[in-house]
Specification:
The structure holds two protein chains of two kinds.
Chain A: H1 34-46, E1 50-55, H2 58-63, E2 64-65, E3 68-69, E4 74-78, H3 83-96, E5 103-109, H4 110-115, H5 118-127, E6 131-137, H6 177-182, E7 188-193, H7 197-209, E8 214-219, H8 223-226, H9 233-242, E9 249-252, E10 255-258, H10 268-273, H11 283-303
Parallel strand pairs in A: 1-4, 1-5, 5-6, 6-8, 7-8
Antiparallel strand pairs in A: 2-3, 7-9, 9-10
Helix pairs in contact in A: 1-7, 3-5
Chain B: E1 5-9, H1 10-20, E2 25-27, H2 35-46, E3 53-55, H3 60-72, E4 77-81, H4 83-88, H5 90-98, E5 104-109, H6 123-126, E6 134-137, H7 141-155, E7 164-169, E8 177-181, H8 185-191, E9 208-209, H9 215-247, E10 255-258, E11 265-269, H10 273-286, E12 291-296, E13 298-300, H11 304-310, E14 316-321, H12 331-341, E15 348-353, H13 363-375, E16 383-385
Parallel strand pairs in B: 2-3, 2-4, 4-5, 5-7, 6-7, 11-12, 11-14, 14-15, 15-16
Antiparallel strand pairs in B: 1-8, 6-13, 10-12
Helix pairs in contact in B: 1-2, 1-7, 3-5, 7-9, 11-12
The chains are: A alpha/beta, B alpha/beta.
Chain lengths: ~300, ~400
């Protein structure tokens, strides 16, 4: 059933023909915030008739400070574990009332998605509710002050995984979130990065056509949490893909596809050294990170379609 | 006019009441002893009797979260839970009342673990008394059905916009059968018009909802919420009177006065145990005793004025509840005692606590309570755990 829902190719949206209307502005996000870029671009694609839901997190904190509301479209803050379930309720409620032409989009961070919100997200996909779910991944709980989440990579200094003599920062790798979502046989899932905005826009546009659940995991930089200069946010989000520490892929019709399959990866330590959160890492950590990357890519290249 | 009556359980009465209220969305997660209610609603959605979306949520937290989402676009919503499920959705309970989403929920009153028990007491809902919901307790299946219909009218009143929890005792009401009069759909439609609210997201008037507030504003939001639930007092009475006119049944609003007017001893209680207490009041009255039952229907808003008036001439008052706030006394007692204390009078007051985890409260238990109230037996504690199987109460 879920597979019959494969999106058809929509009219391409580019920087040139994209609406000049802003849907998310006047908010108080930090300079260089990647999450707000992901939200801004997605709303330009999904448009005026979007119901947007945000759990407790950065976007909720910066966008809904009474009485200064930062969304032009309908938007709501949900409980932390409840973005997917509330978005489900919005979508189903609107359907029951006979509303037409709307899209419900849930936006949540990595913690709100891969940790506390995972159960509700699984339920939303299982029920087949018509919701696009976008996870903006800045690799830690940033709103609460940079604590480790399930998507914090190995070796990250966070306030709950302090790097010291005994620990290299975070001791675990990122959860395979994209594959966890795909395992639900979802009609459409993708990974993206704000460093590759056209690819991200295309994917949001594609997800918009799905009548049912769709999912996008978008990598979004956080200068505040990463200890990186604010003007490097886009550059870092591009570099993370080029080093192979993140990847651009899609899941549809029951199979995975790598959208970008670099012949050679860019240097990992160069990427890491630009960020305060990785400054403490040693040669042996670089080696470990590289091995993990290679293992993951070997598996992806073996099992997934790619160019 | 011929009345349509059915021999049904409390859970089924809830399901029929809900169907008659025509909700757009039902979001519920199964938990004993609520299950029959949501099973019947599922049947009704399947067979087309009820035009609603049934959401198979994966938890109670998602049930209340989805209900809020649906309510936020202006849909009439229903959810149901019990015990562990109710406390699992506790975050959402506060959220729903703060967001002023007029959701109606059935709660099957059940004990809370540990130790595990699927059977009834009222610690689940009473422990969440401060979550900002209107709480009503039904005595039987008929009242349960009628209260679901009334609840939507009260909750959706523009000056109330507060969710309502309709409580019925687990098993004692959810799983026992009685004759219940089923209102006609046309009459319910006339009594309960479609849900209209300005507090919703729409394309005509896009809104940002569920926002955050700063220290400078938060108190005002909470003040308004408190005023709304206090205002509901009036709407509750008004709705009950309108219901009486439409259906010929009334529940006397906030409390029911059963032979309290000249009573020397009054038992104040809530839920299904009112039925047994009523019988004992009649029995003792036949023996010439001046006793009464004050049935609390609403715990929030709290019937302070009604309690003060009805107990004004009583010599002794006992509060019977299946609940304890560990380390102090029963929450119902705390509330009743506070109301009485404000009058300046100090009658003999006793808190009868028991019936936990489904333990039966017998007629004899209630007879003994009235004896305690009559003799004004001097005891060390205000709280009396009745029918206790351990030798002594070590509490000090």
């Amino acid at each position: 059933m879920k597979d019959d829902n494969t999106p058809t190719a929509p009219k391409r949206i580019t920087a040139k023909n994209m609406t000049e209307k802003e849907f998310f502005y006047g908010h108080k996000a930090c300079a260089g915030c990647g999450g707000s870029v992901a939200v801004r671009l997605a709303l330009k694609v999904t448009g005026e008739k979007t119901f947007a839901a945000f759990p407790a997190g950065c976007m909720a904190a910066v966008g809904f400070i009474y009485p200064q509301m930062a969304f032009r479209n309908n938007a709501i803050i949900t409980t932390f574990p409840g973005v997917a379930s509330m978005a489900s309720g919005i979508s189903v409620g609107a359907k029951a009332l006979g509303l037409k032409g709307y899209k419900t989009v849930a936006f949540a961070g990595d913690g709100g998605t891969a940790d506390i919100g995972l159960q509700a997200l699984s339920g939303m996909i299982d029920r087949g509710d018509d919701v696009m779910y976008i996870c903006y991944d800045n690799e830690a709980y940033m709103n609460t002050g940079i604590q480790k989440s399930g998507l914090t990579p190995y070796g990250t200094h966070t306030t709950t995984t302090p790097a010291g003599k005994n620990f290299p920062g975070s001791k675990t790798q990122k959860k395979n979130l994209f594959e966890i979502i795909a395992a639900h046989d979802i009609a459409y899932a993708a990974t993206a990065s704000i460093g590759y905005p056209q690819d991200y826009i295309n994917k949001v546009n594609k997800a918009k056509q799905v009548k049912g659940p769709s999912f996008i995991h978008v990598f979004a930089s956080c200068p505040t949490g990463w200890g990186s200069p604010t003007h490097t946010s886009i550059e870092l989000a591009k570099e993370v893909v080029d080093t192979g520490l993140f990847f651009l892929a899609e899941y549809e019709n029951g199979s995975f596809k790598l959208n970008k399959n670099p012949k050679a990866f860019k240097d990992i330590p160069t990427y890491l050294q630009k960020q305060g959160r990785f400054k403490h890492l040693k040669e042996e950590d670089y080696k470990l990170i590289e091995e993990h990357r290679d293992m993951k890519w070997e598996r992806m290249r073996r099992n997934w379609k790619h160019s | 006019m011929k009345k349509n009556k059915l021999f049904i359980s409390g859970d089924e009465a809830i399901a029929i009441g809900t169907k008659l209220a025509r909700p757009h969305v039902i979001a519920a997660y199964p938990i004993t002893p609520q299950t029959i209610a949501v099973e019947r609603l599922s049947d009704m959605v399947e067979n087309g009797e009820l035009q609603a979306e049934y959401m198979h949520v994966e938890s109670e937290h998602s049930a209340i979260s989805a209900a809020m989402g649906a309510s936020a676009v202006g849909a009439r919503t229903f959810t149901a839970s019990s015990s562990q499920g109710l406390v699992y959705m506790a975050e959402g309970l506060h959220y729903a009342s703060g967001g002023r989403f007029p959701i109606v929920m059935m709660n099957a009153n059940r004990s809370l673990a540990l130790p595990w028990s699927i059977y009834g007491d009222q610690r689940d809902s009473l422990g969440l008394l401060d979550s900002g919901w209107i709480q009503v307790y039904a005595e039987d299946a008929q009242e349960a059905l009628d209260m679901i219909i009334q609840a939507y009218k009260i909750a959706e009143h523009p000056k109330v916009l507060t969710p309502i929890m309709v409580n019925i005792d687990g098993f004692i009401l959810t799983h026992t059968y009685e004759m219940v009069e089923i209102p006609e759909q046309e009459a319910v439609d006339a009594f309960l018009p479609p849900f209209e609210t300005p507090n919703k997201m729409s394309f005509e008037e896009p809104k940002n909802m569920g926002f955050s507030s700063q220290p400078i504003d938060n108190t005002e939001f909470k003040y308004q919420q408190d005023r709304a639930i206090l205002y509901a007092h009036k709407i509750i009475e008004q709705t009950d009177a309108e219901f009486d006119k439409a259906f010929g049944r009334k529940y006397h609003g906030m409390v029911e006065n059963y032979r309290c007017d000249d009573a020397d001893q009054i038992i104040v209680t809530l839920g299904s145990i009112c039925g047994t207490t009523r019988l004992i009041v009649d029995e003792l009255r036949n023996q010439g005793e001046k006793v009464g039952l004050l049935k609390i229907r609403y715990m929030r808003p709290f019937p302070e004025k009604e309690i003060q008036e009805l107990t004004a001439n009583a010599k002794a008052i006992g509060v019977l509840e299946k609940n304890i706030s560990f380390g102090y006394e029963g929450t119902v007692y705390t509330n009743v005692n506070s109301a009485i204390a404000k009058t300046g009078k100090r009658p003999y007051l006793k808190n009868f606590v028991g019936g936990f985890g489904g333990r039966n409260i017998s007629k004899d238990d209630i007879r003994k309570m009235f004896t305690t109230l009559k003799t004004q037996e001097k005891t060390e504690n205000t709280v009396e755990y009745f029918n206790l199987n351990v030798a002594t109460d070590e509490r000090r």
